[in-house]
Write a structure and sequence with these properties.
This protein has one domain (4-13, 21-91). The chain has strands at residues 4-9, 28-38, 43-54, 57-69, 73-79, 85-91. By secondary structure, it is mainly beta.
């Protein structure tokens, strides 16, 4: 049986990141955390951080990086801390879809 811990997130300055996994079976698991980082006006960086667990021990941990084209910006409506509606030019973020076999 395969287990996947996935934390898909964007720039943490836009708010807290929620980790969907409550616990990782450290007897045999691949833990994966994905993140995009806005590099400049034309590029984003995708970081994939892996933790490999076997028999209760972290046996390997590494991060892979890849450069992606930036998706740009979009005018977005949001509510501030007082509940007032505001409009801001926000960075567009990639969505992550993971298939486990």
């Amino acid at each position: 049986m395969a287990a996947l811990a996935l934390s898909a997130c964007s720039d943490t300055s836009t708010g807290p990141v929620q980790d969907l996994a409550q616990a990782v079976d450290k007897e045999g698991a691949v833990e994966l955390s994905l993140q995009t980082i806005h590099l400049d006006s034309a590029r984003d960086v995708m970081a994939a951080h892996y933790k490999i667990w076997a028999k209760g021990n972290l046996i390997k941990e590494f991060t892979k990086y890849d450069t992606l084209p930036r998706l740009g910006k979009s005018m977005t409506e949001y509510a501030d801390e007082n509940g007032d509606t505001k409009v801001a030019d926000m960075d567009l973020d990639y969505e992550f879809y993971v298939t486990v076999k």
